[in-house]
Design a protein that fits this description.
single chain, 23% helix, alpha/beta, 16% strand
Length: 1031
């Protein structure tokens, strides 16, 4: 977006020293020459969803300039600046009880003077919210509770510059080429991030009580926009102190005001507001471009012509009419598609349409499938395609007369005419050569010394006996059509013949791991029901068979090769379940060495750590996809195993990666078994190809997920299950019209578990507008963050992390500055104005920036970073929302008579209390945090022990205590777990004990343990960037 387009708003229009923006980064990673945000463009996403209010900060000094940040000082004109490499640091003041806190240091490289940090903190801390517009009352619970707005509210003061009286003690910033010698931003009072007692940071004093008549928190009516459509919004400002506060008084410095965290937009409040207004209701999809309830809101969805948001969510439900508008706003236009999403039992399953030999009716030109967007004309003899406008003849078998409004008489009898999502039975034309065979599952167990010794092999074999009963089957069938096979391996491979007529299973060993072949066809893949006794016999024998093995070296690529060759020989798609625990160092293709080099962290070569070591795995993944072979990997590492290499095949084949570090039978058994059972039973389609078609004017350009692409349009997946999402980015190739909107059709061709070839179709219509305000009104922050996370995590393979972090911050500022300039009412430059739908974009964006993948820190394990990167690449919107902003529930406020979850609180240490018990979940981990003064009756009720000191923090499952507290807590944990793809292991954390450090990494509104700013500081940083763009 052209920088010159912005104008500064009086009264504070003097240029700010700053992160120099000449030339600005435009979404494209690392290459400033791409001004027209090309295909890979990284665009900022928004947080919590479509119900936000605009935020604005009261007039006062502009936000801090770059002299605050060591390496970001003012730059000579013309040189591309080293821009903000991630959020600015804050003072890290150890809390009174936390001896293990890391020393105070900047979160990102570059020295920082205390005074400048204090100045940044103080500038921020006077941010005050005048208004959240409608429906943003602060939450009424959660220690320490926010101040609710009282009847003392006064009308907003007209914007006026803060006046510096002679004698005010304010340090001017050092002179720079930008601000000249005299500009003096007022330092605002210091914000203390940890919210706990303890000495205040240098130069900061505690906040005085509010003056009479002054309320913190929500309250004033929103300022209306007068350019373009009116939009409500929250307003945050930097006052020079509050009315009559220190900045306007002569004499000695006054006590500084601490920023009230309740006065900045709260994700919890946005979630609660949406639940209050839309929860428990029926959401009908009959209107084009309507904004669905947030992913965090439970409601019943009724398909009336557009796909359910369970299947498709968009970053905005109103696309800009032109590419110029899109470039100006820099809001990514993307859809997060989860084609096999689970449909709750109270909603109707997808209808199956069968046209027999004729197959689905399709447009002759663009090949779109018959759907509600097709317009029938000429008495029903022809139809006009909604995607390419081509007029087609209706096939004779499909003809039907039209009614008085031009709609077919059988409109409501045909799912493909009246519903957004449905399935077709595919004809032979859609098969590779002949009708496919039902898929197979192959279980491949690493029987090296360590897996035998720790009991893992025995556990897997025991559990498979019961889990094989649960292999998925079609609803109407007695037994599953899926066949099963078994391989064990260390340095060599062992195939087992489990044919039903054998008395004993037979083992065949393949020692040539360089050229793997399948030693038997008949008897390797069998029907479980028929061969049950032989299979059970085998599973009993495997642990004893290898009990005396001392072999510790393993192979890995040949294992996948063997599974794929077996499926290929049987001419069926399928899934490999591999249980593996170490770096494959044995001599074989795909052999890996330990390359975990911490010296690469924070250098331009850091990206190598995320790339596979050898191209063996990449070509193996391509072969697997070509043969419909999906790989799911259960990893049990005790040291570095190179997840970036081992995880590549599971990622590209639509499989799943599970990782259990330092697996201990008594602690991790349940988590692993839950994951295995869930993975075996989940809904899945095999050998899939997805195509996303769009109406004229825009097209799909970029795809992110567990996918392989051999051309620009076909998304190939060896398998796709109910938890996997593909994020698709769209770009204009022409103008869009407000009348016809923007239409999307996602078609997935796949093989069912019974071997039937089917097409699953999802259709969605979006609005188009030539008003930027409409675009901002229709954004969904959760989908934006999903998009930003995936595009950033894809970019880490090729770009320095510093550049990626800069682009994220820059694009966040661009989106918000464009709104400020084009959609908000004029106001002082020092005010931060956030669109209603993006109120919580900054907090979510900061959570993404603090994720270990984007943080260059040697303390974080390379494998863990590669693992999290891979998980996020296939996440749907609900999973990425919880992953980046965890749920924190106060358990001590439980009402044992209610089945409702307690209302969540914000993820900050200031929300915890010594008397409280809190449950935190992010989709991978679950923590139960116990305050030192937790109520004894709760401790007795949950743990069945008399006091805090007696609690055993090693347990990973709560004891079954037959009282209401225990039952209620276990029920809540069950509800949180039930919709999530990964089983969350419970960790019990006591306040002020060493393990609390791990828990605190998830308090994402606070300063990160390994770097990364607090929410408040990040908001300040973004505001500063916006001011520079506007200047």
């Amino acid at each position: 977006m052209s920088q010159q387009g912005y104008v500064a708003t009086p009264p504070y229009s003097q240029p700010q020293p700053g992160i120099g923006l000449s030339p600005p980064h435009y979404g494209h990673y690392g290459d400033p020459s791409h001004t027209a945000s090309p295909t890979g463009m990284m665009k900022p996403a928004g947080p919590l969803g479509a119900t936000a209010t605009r935020g604005m900060l009261p007039p006062g000094p502009p936000p801090p300039g770059p002299h605050q940040f060591g390496q970001n000082g003012a730059h000579a004109t013309g040189h591309p600046p080293q821009r903000f490499p991630g959020p600015p640091p804050v003072n890290n003041v150890a809390s009174s009880h936390a001896p293990y806190q890391p020393s105070a240091q900047s979160s990102y490289p570059g020295p920082i003077s205390t005074s400048s940090v204090t100045q940044l903190g103080s500038q921020l801390s006077a941010m005050q919210i005048n208004s959240y517009g409608s429906g943003m009352a602060p939450p009424s619970q959660g220690p320490p509770g926010p101040l609710s707005a009282t009847s003392l509210q006064t009308p907003p003061r007209p914007p006026q510059p803060s006046i510096l009286q002679p004698g005010s003690q304010v340090l001017p910033p050092p002179p720079t080429t930008l601000n000249g010698p005299g500009a003096s931003p007022l330092p605002l009072p210091m914000y203390r991030p940890d919210g706990l007692s303890g000495p205040p940071p240098p130069n900061a004093q505690y906040q005085p009580p509010p003056l009479p008549g002054q309320t913190l928190g929500a309250g004033y009516p929103p300022q209306q926009a007068n350019s373009g459509p009116q939009m409500a919004g929250a307003q945050l400002s930097y006052p020079g102190g509050f009315p009559g506060g220190p900045a306007q008084m002569a004499g000695p410095p006054q006590p500084q005001k601490k920023l009230d965290p309740d006065s900045i937009p709260s994700p919890i409040q946005v979630i609660e507001n949406d639940r209050a207004s839309r929860g428990g209701q029926v959401y009908a999809t009959n209107t084009r471009g309507q904004i669905p309830p947030l992913v965090t809101t439970d409601c019943m969805i009724q398909d009336q012509g557009n796909a359910s948001p369970r299947f498709i969510r968009c970053t905005t439900y109103c696309f800009p009419c032109t590419s110029d508008m899109a470039k100006q706003a820099q809001i990514p236009l993307a859809a997060v598609i989860k084609p096999f999403a689970t449909i709750p039992s109270n909603e109707s399953p997808l209808y199956l349409v069968n046209h027999g030999e004729s197959g689905p009716v399709r447009c002759n030109r663009c090949k779109a499938y018959m759907c509600p967007f097709m317009q029938f004309i000429e008495g029903g003899r022809r139809y006009q395609c909604g995607f390419c406008n081509c007029v087609n003849d209706v096939p004779p078998f499909y003809f039907q007369h039209l009614d008085h409004i031009g709609r077919r008489l059988d409109h409501y009898e045909k799912p493909e005419l009246s519903l957004g999502s449905y399935e077709y039975v595919a004809t032979l034309d859609y098969c590779r050569s002949k009708p496919p065979n039902p898929p197979a599952f192959i279980f491949m167990i690493d029987v090296s010394y360590s897996n035998i010794k720790n009991g893992l092999v025995k556990l897997i074999c025991e559990e498979l006996k019961t889990m094989l009963e649960k292999i998925p089957k079609e609803e109407q069938e007695e037994t599953s059509a899926i066949r099963v096979g078994f391989i064990t391996y260390n340095k060599v491979l062992h195939f087992f013949n489990v044919k039903s007529n054998l008395a004993q299973p037979q083992m065949m060993v393949v020692t040539d791991v360089g050229e793997v072949f399948v030693p038997l066809l008949d008897g390797f893949l069998v029907n479980y029901q028929e061969s049950q006794s032989v299979i059970h016999n085998l599973l009993d024998q495997i642990p004893d068979m290898f009990a005396d093995s001392n072999e510790n070296e393993t192979v890995f690529a040949p294992v996948i090769q063997a599974g794929m060759e077996a499926l290929k020989a049987a001419d069926c798609p399928g899934k490999l379940f591999i249980f593996h625990s170490s770096l494959p160092t044995a001599e074989a293709p795909g052999k890996l060495k330990n390359r975990d080099d911490k010296k690469l962290v924070n250098t331009d070569k850091e990206k190598i750590l995320f790339q596979p070591q050898t191209n063996v795995y990449d070509s193996l993944a391509k072969d697997c996809v070509a043969h419909g072979c999906s790989v799911t990997l259960f990893l049990f590492p005790s040291q570095y195993v190179d997840v970036a290499s081992l995880g590549l095949v599971p990622q590209l084949t639509g499989g799943t990666l599970y990782k259990y570090n330092n697996f201990q039978m008594h602690l991790d058994r349940q988590q692993f078994l839950n994951d295995l059972r869930n993975d075996i039973e989940k809904k899945i389609g095999f050998d899939a190809i997805m195509r996303v078609r769009t109406s004229t004017g825009f097209r799909a350009t970029d795809f992110f997920g567990g996918i392989l692409m051999n051309n620009t349009t076909d998304v190939e997946m060896a398998a796709i299950d109910c938890d996997k999402a593909v994020t698709v980015e769209f770009k204009h190739d022409d103008k869009l019209s407000e009348d016809s909107g923007a239409l999307i059709q996602c078609a997935v061709l796949y093989t069912t578990i019974s071997g039937q070839r089917r097409l699953r179709i999802h259709n969605l219509g979006l609005n188009c507008s030539s008003q930027l305000a409409d675009l901002y009104k229709s954004c969904e922050t959760d989908a934006l963050i999903n998009f930003f996370a995936k595009s950033a995590f894809k970019a880490v393979l090729h770009q320095p992390l510093k550049v990626i972090r800069e682009i994220l911050v820059n694009q966040t500022a661009h989106m918000l500055a464009c709104y400020r300039k084009n959609c908000a009412s004029p106001s002082a430059a020092s005010q931060l104005i956030l669109p209603d739908s993006m109120k919580v974009l900054p907090v979510y964006m900061n959570c993404l920036l603090k994720n270990c993948v984007l943080l260059s820190r040697p303390e974080i394990s390379t494998d863990e970073r590669a693992y999290q990167r891979q998980l996020v690449m296939t996440m749907g919107v609900a999973d990425s929302q919880l992953f980046f902003y965890p749920q924190l529930l106060p358990i001590h406020t439980l009402d044992v008579k209610s089945t409702m979850l307690p209302a969540a609180v914000r993820c900050s240490e200031s929300r915890l209390s010594e008397e409280g018990i809190f449950l935190l979940a992010n989709g991978l981990h679950m923590f139960l945090w116990l305050g030192v003064s937790s109520p004894p009756e709760l401790i007795q009720g949950i743990f069945n022990v008399p006091s805090f000191a007696h609690i055993n923090t090693d347990m990973t499952l709560l004891p079954e205590v037959g009282n209401p507290y225990s039952q209620q807590l276990r029920m809540i944990m069950g509800i949180i777990q039930q919709k999530r793809p990964y089983s969350m292991k419970l960790t019990i954390v006591k306040q002020r004990e060493q393990p609390e450090m791990v828990f605190r990494q998830f308090l994402v509104e606070d300063k990160g343990l390994y770097g990364g700013s607090s929410y408040v500081d990040f908001l300040c940083c973004v505001h500063k960037e916006i001011c520079q763009l506007l200047n």
